[in-house]
Structures are given as C-alpha cells and as structure tokens.
Amino acid sequence: MKDCPECKSPYGYPMGELFACPECGHEWNPDEIDESSLIKDSNGNVLNDGDTVIVIKDLPVKGAPKPIKAGTKVKNIRLTDGDHNIDCKVDGFGAMALKSEFVRKA
C-alpha cells in the first residue's frame, strides 16, 4: 500500500504497473516522482518527515523577546502543505511552523 499523492489516503493499492486510490479515484505511477510536491531546503536537498534541520539565519518570532538564532538545530520535523511547510518544536520557543527556505538539512 502507498499513500495517494492527491488526497494522502493510506489505502493506495497496486493495479498492474499503476497504483489506485479507492477514496478519490486517482491513479499514479509510483516510479514517476512529481518534483513540484517535493519540499526542499535552502540548498536544494529533499526534506522528509523526521529529518533534522539547521536554521540558516536569525528568524524573528512574534511575541518572543529574541529571535531563533542561526545554527539552531531542529529535530524530528513534520512536513505540511502551505507557505510555512515545516511543523516542529524549537527548544526555548515551543511548537511552530517554519519555511523550508530558511533551513538546511543536518
């Protein structure tokens, strides 16, 4: 079983060379990777759930007296859709969303 690239359903099943989703009806070839759906860091490396990343520049945080400093290591990231495409917990700041363009893979 593979996750559907359209609706993220975990019930994708093989149908010959293709996979099909019983929830949305989408069919796809698992060998073809859609480059537009990949989330990349500032250096162009592909990010995955659970990766560790390093912040590359000071990032101001609303309501916090100090920014997240460049060089801060963030462990166990979770990728999401949207402008801020990384959900994570930053030591000293708590849960927040970051943009992938401001981090690099550790």
Helix content: under 10%
Find the structural class using helix and strand composition.
mainly beta
**If helices are DSSP runs of H or I spanning 4 or more residues, what is the number of helices?**
0
User: Which strand order spans the largest sheet, edge to edge or round the barrel?
Assistant: 1-2-3
Overall average residue pLDDT: 91
Hey, roughly how much beta strand do the residues contain?
A: 25-35%
Total number of beta strands: 9
Please summarize the sheet with the most strands: 3 strands, antiparallel
Contiguous low-pLDDT stretches (5 residues minimum) are: none
Q: What distance lies between the first and last C-alpha atoms, to the nearest angstrom?
A: 30 Å
Note the run of SSEs as H and E. Answer: EEEEEEEEE
Shape: elongated
| Spatial extent as radius of gyration | 17 Å
Short description:
With 106 residues, this protein is mostly beta strands. Helix content is 0%, strand content 26%.
